[in-house]
UniProtKB/TrEMBL annotation:
One annotated GO molecular function: hydrolase activity
Record-given protein name: CPBP family intramembrane glutamic endopeptidase
Keywords: Hydrolase, Membrane, Transmembrane, Transmembrane helix
The keyword Transmembrane belongs to this UniProt entry's keyword annotation: yes
Domain annotation CAAX prenyl protease 2/Lysostaphin resistance protein A-like: ranges: 116-198
Annotated TM spans: 7-28, 34-52, 73-93, 105-126, 138-160, 190-208
Keyword Phosphoprotein included in the entry's annotation: no
Origin: domain of life: Bacteria
Coiled-coil region(s): none
Protein family per UniProt: Belongs to the UPF0177 family.
Length: 209
C-alpha cells in the first residue's frame, strides 16, 4: 500500500469514528449511545490496524530504521511519565497565560461508571486511531516536507484541536511529546504505549478519587 492510500484510509477512519461517535451520543445520550460508540471505536481501530499492517513503505520518521522491541517498550513506558509532566506544565501555562481552568475528567468518569466497557474505547481504540492519524500519517508524512519540529508542531496542534480545543496549548505540547517519542524509536508503538499508559493512569486515578 502506498503512503498516500494509507493516509487517506487512516484519516478517513479517524474522522468517521470521531463524527460518528458525536452523532451517536447526540441521538442516544444514555448507555445505549456509549455501547454503540464503543463498538464503533473498536471496529474503527481494528480496521485501522489492518490497514496499517498493509503499509510497507516507511515514512520519513521510520526510514532511518526502527529501534528494537525492548527499546520501544522502555521509551514507551518512560513516555508515560514524560507526557504527564508535560501535561502538568501545559495546564500551569494555560492557567497563567489565559486563566483557563484545569481540564476535568468528570464526563469520562461518569460514562465509565455507567458503562465500564466504554474504557475499551477511551483507553485503547481512540489512542490507536489518534496515534495512527496524527503521528504516523500527519507527523510522519509532513516531516519529509517541513522540518521535523514543524511537522511535530502542526500535528500536535491538529491533535489538540481535534481532542480538546478548550485546552489547545496543553494538547499541542502533549502532541509534540508523542511525536518526539515516535522520532526516538521510529515506531508508532512507542507513543501508543505512552498514550495508553497515560490515559489508564489518569482515568484510573480519577475513578478512584
Amino acid at each position: 500500500m502506498s503512503l498516500q492510500k494509507h493516509a487517506v484510509q487512516i484519516l478517513g477512519l479517524y474522522l468517521g469514528v470521531l463524527l460518528g461517535s458525536m452523532l451517536i451520543l447526540h441521538l442516544w445520550p444514555g448507555e445505549s449511545g456509549l455501547w454503540a460508540t464503543t463498538g464503533l471505536a473498536v471496529l474503527g481501530a481494528l480496521i485501522a490496524w489492518r490497514c496499517d499492517r498493509r503499509l510497507v513503505v516507511p515514512n520519513t520518521i521510520e526510514a532511518p530504521g526502527v529501534a528494537s522491541a525492548q527499546t520501544r517498550v522502555v521509551w514507551g513506558v518512560s513516555g508515560v511519565a514524560i507526557v504527564l509532566i508535560v501535561e502538568l506544565l501545559g495546564t500551569w501555562l494555560e492557567a497563567v497565560l489565559f486563566r483557563t481552568a484545569a481540564p476535568t475528567l468528570t464526563q469520562a468518569t461518569s460514562a465509565l461508571h455507567s458503562v465500564p466497557f466504554y474504557a475499551l474505547a477511551l483507553v485503547w481504540a481512540l489512542p490507536v486511531l489518534e496515534e495512527y492519524a496524527f503521528r504516523r500519517v500527519i507527523f510522519g508524512n509532513l516531516a519529509g516536507i517541513t522540518s521535523v519540529f514543524g511537522a511535530a508542531l502542526i500535528s500536535g496542534l491538529l491533535f489538540a484541536l481535534a481532542t480538546d480545543p478548550a485546552h489547545w496549548l496543553t494538547g499541542t505540547l502533549v502532541g509534540i511529546t508523542y511525536a518526539y517519542l515516535y522520532k526516538q524509536t521510529g515506531s508508532v508503538q512507542t507513543p501508543l504505549i505512552a498514550h495508553i499508559g497515560m490515559l489508564a493512569l489518569t482515568l484510573g486515578y480519577a475513578m478512584w478519587h
